[in-house]
Specification:
- A hairpin with a 5-residue loop joins strand 1 (14-18) and strand 2 (24-27).
- The chain has three domains: 6-109, PAS domain (Beta-Lactamase), CATH 3.30.450.20; 114-183, no CATH class; 192-343, Heat Shock Protein 90.
- It has 355 residues and is α+β, with helices and mostly antiparallel strands.
- Helix 9 runs antiparallel to helix 10.
- The chain has helices spanning 6-9, 29-35, 39-42, 47-50, 55-67, 109-156, 163-183, 197-211, 233-250, 312-322, and strands at residues 14-18, 24-27, 71-80, 83-93, 102-108, 192-195, 216-221, 229-232, 255-269, 272-284, 326-332, 335-343.
């Protein structure tokens, strides 16, 4: 069935249209998600039945229809789906829209905060990339000079025992060079193919258990109905491995990690609306993320672990963004959960030709 308002279909905000009896005449996909009801259930239903327990709000809508007026409220609390949500609400009278008399737009405030956070994150990532490029330029040449000087010095030293120190210099410069190379990754172009996310999860599970054979338990909670998606397998493996390894290191290799997958519908990432996305969750029962690191945990060179490079989560974020996805976390002592949201794009959108 063709929508009478195609321009509203892709909006991330929930849009409803009501007639003079406060019955729903239109609902976009975002409204279906917010109200947890399909369009067939919503159309023709009274708004009081769609939003039970919100009598004062329904009365306000009735006054708006009767007076042919609208209203705008920044922090409206509504009971929806058994929980209290704070929303930004706009109600506006409509003309020449058939039986519709009132347009209602509802946006979750936490969604607004998320969009703002994504924009700030994209800006921060760009600044990080510039910092890394400048840092690499400044460090690369001196590293080569130090390494070359150490090798020349090693040839001139009369005492073989002293060469151990020049070898330390060479090895450490090589380690720093490797670190710089990792900061400048990814070097290769993505190899896009159709893949199942559970194949990626199982590979990560195998690698992690090989690294921590004792004391670490990995529990699986997979949604086996998830569709395949186009992506770069090696990048996704590295992204999820970095997050899972970070969890294992935080617990010193002793604890439980849960791998969970779910389908997410009608999601918005970086202001783009996707019909389907795959949510990958990595949850651990470790000590949690220190409060002073919570706001900068994805920044390069930031680590809460002694000896850590601070690149694992930063690289994971870069690989997830390559897939037009999003990575978030919530943490408290005893429970930390990272969620990777991967939009399910068509092969054509991902640049993968169908044969």
């Amino acid at each position: 069935m063709t929508s009478p308002y195609p321009g509203l279909e892709l909006l991330a905000t929930a849009v409803l249209m009501l007639d003079d009896r406060l019955q729903v005449t239109y609902a976009n996909p975002a409204a279906e998600t917010l109200l947890a009801h399909g369009r067939k259930h919503l159309l023709g239903a009274a708004i009081a039945r769609v939003m039970p327990g919100n009598e004062a709000f329904v009365e306000r809508l009735a006054r708006a229809v009767a007076e042919d007026s609208g209203f705008n409220e920044n922090e409206l609390s509504l009971e929806l789906g058994g929980q209290t949500l704070t929303l930004h609400c706009i109600a506006a009278p409509v003309a020449e829209a058939g039986d519709s008399r009132l347009l209602l737009e509802l946006r979750e405030l936490n969604q607004q905060l998320r969009i703002a956070r994504e924009a700030k994150l994209a800006e921060q990532q760009q600044a990080n990339r510039e910092l890394i490029r400048n840092l690499a330029h400044e460090i690369k040449n001196p590293l080569g000079g130090i390494r070359g000087a150490a090798q020349l010095l090693e040839r001139e030293l009369p005492d073989p025992d002293l060469r151990e120190f020049t070898q330390v210099i060479v090895k450490e410069t090589d380690r720093l060079q490797s670190l710089m190379n990792r900061m400048l990754t990814p070097h290769r172009l993505p190899q896009i193919e159709m893949l199942g996310v559970h194949e990626v999860m199982e590979r990560v599970r195998t690698l992690l258990l090989a690294e921590y054979p004792q004391g670490l338990a990995i529990r699986r909670d997979y949604d086996v109905s998830l569709p395949d998606m186009p992506g770069d397998k090696e990048s996704l493996i590295q992204a999820i491995l970095n997050v899972a390894r970070n969890a294992a290191q935080a617990m010193a290799g002793r604890g439980e990690i849960t791998f969970r997958t779910r389908v997410a519908r009608q999601v918005t990432v970086a202001r783009t609306r996707y019909r389907l996305a795959i949510a990958v969750e990595i949850e651990d029962n470790g000590p949690g993320v220190p409060q002073d690191l919570a706001g900068k945990i994805f920044f390069p060179l930031v680590s809460g672990r002694e000896g850590g490079s601070g690149l694992g989560l930063s690289l994971a974020q870069s690989y997830v963004h390559q897939h037009h996805g999003l990575i978030e976390f919530e943490s408290a002592p005893g429970r930390t959960r990272f969620t990777i949201l991967l939009p399910v794009r068509s092969p054509e959108q991902a640049g993968l030709a169908r044969h």
